[in-house]
Amino acid sequence: MDGQAGRQSPTEIPLETFLHLVDLAALELTEDEAEYLRREMNAQLRAIGDLQAIQLSADTPITSHGIPYPRAVRPALRGDHAETFPHADEILAQAPESDGRYIVVPDQPGTDLE
Amino acid sequence: MIEDLCDLSGHQIAERIRRREISATEVLDSTFARIHRVDGRSGSLEDRPPDPDEAVHVHAFLELTEELAHRQASQIDSALARGDDPGPLAGVPLAVKDIFCVQGTASTAGSRILANYRAPYSATSVERLVSAGALVVGKVNLDEFTFGSSNESSAFRPTPRNPWEPSRVPGGSSGGSAAAVAAGEAVLSLGTDTSGSIRQPAAFCGVSGLKPTYGRVSRYGLIAFASSLDCPGPIARDVTDLALALGAMSGEDRRDATAAAVPVPDYRASLDQGVRGLRIGISPDAFQLAYPDPTSGEVRTQGVDREMETAVREAVQALQAEGAEIVEGIPLSHARYAIPAYFVISRVEAASNLHRYDGVKYGHRHVGPVSDLRSLYRTTRGEGFGTQVKLRILMGMYVSAAQYEEQFYAQALRVRSLIRRDFEAAFDPHGAYRVHALLGPTTPTAAFPMNELYGDSVLMQLADLLTVPANHAGIPGLSIPCGLSAEGLPLGLQLLGPDFEEGTLFRIGRAYEKATEGEAWRAQRPKVLAG
Lengths: 114, 531
Hints:
The complex is a heterodimer of chains A (114) and B (531).
Chain A (H helix, E strand, L loop, with lengths): L14 H10 L6 H18 L39 H5 L5 E2 L2 E2 L11
Antiparallel strand pairs in A: 1-2
Chain B lengths: L9 H9 L5 H15 L22 E4 L1 H17 L10 E5 L26 H8 L3 E6 L34 H8 L5 E6 L5 H7 L2 E4 L19 E6 L2 H11 L29 E4 L5 E5 L6 E5 L2 H16 L3 E3 L10 H17 L18 H12 L2 H13 L5 H23 L9 E5 L15 H5 L6 H6 L3 E8 L5 E7 L5 H14 L16
Parallel strand pairs in B: 2-3, 2-4, 7-10, 7-11
Antiparallel strand pairs in B: 1-3, 4-6, 5-6, 5-12, 8-9, 11-13, 12-13
């Protein structure tokens, strides 16, 4: 990516980084779209810069769901066994291209192993 | 007159059906007549120039499920004929936000990429509402994958309009839900709230909406946006209907490990207990907005609209007159970081959830030659996703990249803890404030004009400034109407409460409804119902 490290906030997403993200995200963009998206990403980057100003003590925990999940309210896990979905054919029928019960995809890029 | 049955509240409908004064089929006939009168052209992917028709209709629905609804209505009427209990929501017309799977219906998430997807199963919340007697009348429009606050990002156009003034947005992302309920096209709607997507459109459309506690309602069958923030919840025309719907939807679900094992109370039983003995907190941070300037990133402050503040202050006085103790000066000092933290957390989760759409297993697939699988992914996702979806994917990938993960994502999750702590301090029964609920405006302004903010992703997000802190904290939030602006647009107040204390919020909301039931603004009707 753009090689910035440490706690200094980046202020703009370099074009090279943007293009790398677009490739990773598997998105084909028009020129206008790309220009708009990069501009809005930079605006959001400025908006989230405020977060960096917050001094957090080392013991500030991460909150992943808002509410805590103590054992008393945690639902029991299901048994670890497979269950047959009753409408499997309906799921398979939604595949854009299929051959019998196989889903058809184009060639996958790869390198043949010697 | 049959036409008016769709304007009754859900509890009135269920009671009259149970007394056999009306039938579920008659309620449906009234509802579909209303839909055909006010909804206009349904949203579609067709590329058509704007039509004058769009400016006078609601355009809430993407699909009507008349056959399904009539089948369900017949079951209600048959149950009654047998002497069976038809359920607490017997015969109540329900519009489902098209982010929920309903077996056999197109379930599009408002996106081209899922335009041809038909759900092979139903969401738990839909199944439970139907089991309680609700009738699914159709699927309603939304912001694409729920990404938005105006409903303008849907791929299906025309997008919904505000029934009170169709030149204004209905809010979002549950804009179709709130608009349908406001216009009498449904009595109840099932929406989702990730940053305010139930409460904000409810406020803009003059109806009531509840974001339950995270974990109160199962997310099974909900097409995911930000999995740690998404909450299914009801939109209705009064608090009693919300209480009935939440009671039906809530509870443990073996298909969702985050659906908490917390008993579901009888919300309706405590509705009319009044507010005497309750402490209601007011925070100055709910009236003075702090937000990052979209150009410079500098923090700016601004008060909410004057008439919004006046309406909410009058509501406070009304509740005080009913016996509530008002506690001013509750600090919510970290609420100002809720939007920046949301920009990070929601984008990371959205990017992760959206990787599954690839044109292989279901949904849209690029038609035409491609060189390989990766090329198929790129073309399919490029065509299938709208711009706002792409923006969220790219931003989510950026802030979760290895070199920024600690700086942005981990920092945002820690800030989330601080936002949560502010609420814990306010609600702590042994703390300095000991409030049962917090009260403030739902939104900084009334509904804004269409096309005013769409495209500016930072300004649009600010519409959720007052609602998103509750999503970070996981706590419940209720929005109810509290008046009309000088322009005749609805204003909404928000009540926030401790985890799983939705019943307290309903109790306060109901007390406010009773205290103000004679006020002139309550007799006003949305513009689309005139004539």
